[in-house]
Structure formats: C-alpha cells, structure tokens
Amino acid sequence: MKLTELSLKNYSTIDSQTLDGLSDFNIIIGPNNSGKSSILKAIDKIQQFESGRSPLNDTEVYLEDRRRAVRIIYTFEDQSFELWSSSGDLRLKNEENKKEQFGKITTLFCEEGRLNSYKKEDPGRYLSGLFSDLGYEKTYEISEKIEDDLRKIADPNIQGVSGPIVGKAETVRLACEPGERVIEPELERHGSGVRSLALLLTEIYVNDPDIILLDEPELGLNPAGKRCFLQRLIDLSDDYQIFISTQDSSFVNPLFWKDDENKVSVFHYSISRVIQGREAFVNVEVDEPKTFAGYLPQSTTLKDAHIYVEGKEDVRVFRAYLQRYLEEKSEHFDSKGDVLNRAEIYHLGGSNWEHFLSTIPGAPYSSLVVLDGNMEGQAETVVKRYRDSGYDNLPSFLKCDNLEEVSRSLSTEDEIPVYCLQKDDISEYAGVEDKREAEPQAWKQDSIPGEIEDLFDILFLGGVKVYQAGSIDSGELNKWQEANGNWEAREGELHQTHKSGNNVITLSGFQLKDGIFEADINSVDGGAGQQLIWRGDGDVASNYYIFGTGNLSSDNPIVRAGVYKDGKPQWIKKKNIKNGDLELGQNEFHTYKAEFKGNVHKVYIDNHLVWKIKDDKIEEAGLVGFHCGRHTSFRNVKVWKWN
C-alpha cells in the first residue's frame, strides 16, 4: 500500500500540515526544528498501532496548546485511516472494521543518528539477531544484495561477505580485492561507515517494510558516499515507499532522478509561509532543477556572485544578456571565463520565489535578487515579512527602489538587495510577449537593455550608472553647465560651434572621484581637439584630467592624455594616430571612454585601450564634461560612479 497523502493536526511541533502528492520516494527539506522529524514520527505511528490504538507520549502532544486534540489522517491509494486523541493514546476513529487492515502496514524508522549508532554495535551479534529466524537461502539472498549495495555505495573492491554470518564480530568478514591479492578484513575493521550501511540495509531486507523512514541519513557519510546512498535509496523505492528528511540541500541531487521524476516528491520548508501562520512545507514541482536555488549547495559553492531570478526562462534570458555583456565589456576583465567562474544565475521556482529567499547565502557572497516589475508590491510585503520575522539565522534583505540602492547594498555586504525591474516582465526587454521566446530574441537585439547592463555593471564592475542620455534634446541640455562656447541640442546630439579652441561644458548635479565617463564624439570639421574631461573644477581650462584627439582632418592627427593644472596643459601621453592602430577620421562618431580610480586612469577609443596612466595631480572629486574646439558633436553619454 502506498501512502498518497498525510494530514497532521496538533501533533508535536506541528499545528497543521498536509503533504499531498506523495510518491515512491519523498524528500523533506528543512532546517533544524522545522518539523521534519515530527512528520516521520507521525508516519511511524502506523508501526506502533496495536489492539486499536497507538501510544502518544508527552512530546507528541501539540506543544503550543496541550488541550488540542491530535489528529493524523493517512490516505492510501484505496482508503484512508484517521488516528485521533483528545487525551491518552491515539485511536483509529470510527473505523472498527479497518483495524486489521491498518495493523498490517509496516514501517521501518531510522531516526536521526541511527546510522552513527550502528557504529557502536557488534556487527556479528547484530547480524546474528537479524538473520536468526531466516533460512539459508534467504540469508544468502540478502547477503548478495548487501554486497552489491556496498560495492556501489562504499567500496567497489568489496567482493562479498565471507565466513559465518552467525558468530562474533571478527568472523563477519568482507572480502576486498584491491589488486591481485585478496584481503579479508573483519567488518569491524572495514570502517564505521561501511558497517553502518551494512546493518541498515540488512534491517531493510530482513524486515521488508512497506514504508522506510530515514531521518537525516546522510550524517556521517563522505560526499561520494552521500551521492551513492541517495542513488541506492531511489532504486530501492521501486520496492518500498521511502521518506527521508534532510537539512543538507547538497544531499538532494535532482540529477539522480531526472529519468524518474514521477516517482519523486520534494517538500520544501518555507519560512515565508511560517511567518504568515500557514503550513510550513510546500510541494513544489520544479522545472530546470539544475539552476533551482532550493536544491543547490550554494553556501559551499566557489561562485562569489549569485543572481537570483524568478523562473527558468528568466535564467536563460539573463544568461544570454550576461554572455553579450562579457563580449562588450571584455576589456574590463582578464577573460570572460574569469566572470563566468565567479558568477552563477539561479531561479527561485517561478511564482514560488518567496519561499526560497531563505536559501540565499549572505556575505562573503555577493547575492542579488532580480524580479519582474509586476512583483513590486509582493516584494515589498515579502521583504518586510522576512525583516520582521525575528529569525536570527535568516539572511537580511533590502527592497531597493533604484540602482543606487542596489549598489550601496552590495558594497556594504550587510543586506541582500531585492530589485524589481522597471518593466513588468523580462520578455518586454526582449520585445516579445511570450517569455519562452525571450531568450532567442535576447541574442539578436542590437544592444543589451540599459537597465540589465547597469545591474551587471554594479555586480561585476562595482559601479552604478549616475547619468545616461542616448540622445540630447533641449530639456536634457538643462542638466549641463556651459563654461565657454556655443552649445546647443539638435537632432538628438549636443553640438559646439564656437571657433575657439577652449570650449568647456560639464554635467551639473554631482561630482566624481572614481568612475567611468563615456561618449560618442564626432569632429565634424576635423579641426582643433575633442576631449573628455574629469575631476574638473568647472572653470575654463583650469584644473581637470583630459583625454581625446585633435586635428583629425590634417596630416598630423593626434591622440593625447594629460592634465590641465592652473589652466596649463601637461600632456602625459601623446602620439600621432597614423603611427598607431587607431582609425579615426573627420565627421564620424567614435566612442571615447575614461576610467579613473585613485591614481590609475585608463583611456579608450572604440573599446581599444589606448593608455593606462598613473597620476595623482588631482585627487579630489570633480565634474565630468567636454573640452573641444570648433564644430564638434556628442551623443550616447554615460557616467558611472565607482563605490
């Protein structure tokens, strides 16, 4: 008989919990004191049922209110049974005719630490007791099964159980064949892990229960043993219904049941539901388990940057954008592999995302939660719920309304930022209606959506975009402060037409010490210079760093970088463009960029690193802007601030 549903009321630490959709192999994941063991003990009440009743001890009465009646309903494939008690032992309620049927169901409960307790047993005496009532053929059959299991789980060199089964510990032997020479160490000396597994498996095969209950069975096993043991348990669920509880998500590897998904059910503990006073465990059917946050051993991963999104389609879209981002920003990293080795993108089970926030690790990991814009209201509620929960071992979350708050949160490492995108759904960024079509389109788009790019900049470059203007109109021009020259906005571009060589305009409203300043610049008439400036004091040709080109229509076009100090240029680097690998000309746009952090200044044209300069003549924060002569136009202006 297979248990298909279990319902508990007022049992031990559990107020109310229903586990429906039970399968051949059932996994209950949750932290200590979450009620996992209570669920297994409730199922084991079947085994304790005798003469119409099952004992109920003090620890199994609902701890919050001992006056409440305990109620357990077991639903099997063809019928259900209800145990009930207002005081004293549990009784089969109003089902006198079912006592005999219920009493025939058998369980084997391996409580927490049982595997470790086997280490203290004398294997010979213990096995003798188990095999004492079996005939030779049954004993031999079970011995063969144990040998096969131990070869898979513990040691592939185990050849068989030799010597008499009945007797002292030293006569119970496992034959191992690591090479040509056969060694027969006593089971007592073969290792406590092997001994424990041998005794547990023997109990299973000898007792042949309907239901096997294992409370944290992975304790005491090495990583390889855990994997093999889990696989063997899944195989055994062809013959037995198995329940295991665990708090170790690394033990639950969905790759082992990828071909048997219909026989496995996983119940996750949800702190969010507990805070709301709802049932703690939720059965979540997960698509794309390889990137599901609820299964992964994230607190042991070597990836230091984690991005959490809602569902599997979001993972695919974000991965596409991340790959493109690394291509476009390759000059910032030693290699794309450097970032990919540092980062991973996980999903939180789609609409069930709030239940799995508690699986996200805090410092030293850089974790970021990114949700669709239509989750804005729910995100506010859920984050507040977590913050007000009073649970000290939960990660601390911060709902961020803008990218500046995301950047600040990541830099402090005190809280995990939760950010909702500006658009309702990730598919809108890809220009499609169906999220399943978003990933292919993400690869084809002309550019990465600015908001997504900004998030990656914050996470991987440590900065936040403080200004961006793809096109500049008259309204945008109000954000700029003219120091000298004729500046105007037309056709989406910022133009300067004064004949002077010292025309300066700066962005107002903020100052930067460390950051990135980037713009597309066009020397329309090819005369004079066209340059970026940073850490400026706002005066014409006064104090600032400067980088750009000049005389592009002449026979001597130059690229140069340096500093204006007290109105006088001091060129640190300067060269003829024709002697280098830059291809620049009159009346064409090129992307100029300066990165500055401390005394290090990197300057680029069209993503080509021109120079890396060390200079500390100006250390204070200052303005960014343009210094140019004659007719020059600008567009696609972007400014990042380093934390």
UniProtKB/TrEMBL annotation:
MF GO annotations: ATP binding; ATP hydrolysis activity
Cross-referenced Pfam families: AAA_15, AAA_21
Ranges for domain Endonuclease GajA/Old nuclease/RecF-like AAA: 1-79
Gene3D superfamilies, A to Z: Exo-inulinase, domain 1, P-loop containing nucleotide triphosphate hydrolases
ATPase AAA-type core domain mapped to chain residues: 118-252
UniProt xrefs under InterPro entries: AAA_GajA/Old/RecF-like (IPR041685), ATPase_AAA_core (IPR003959), Bact_Antivir_Def_Nuclease (IPR051396), P-loop_NTPase (IPR027417)
Residues spanning the membrane: none
Protein name (database record): Uncharacterized protein
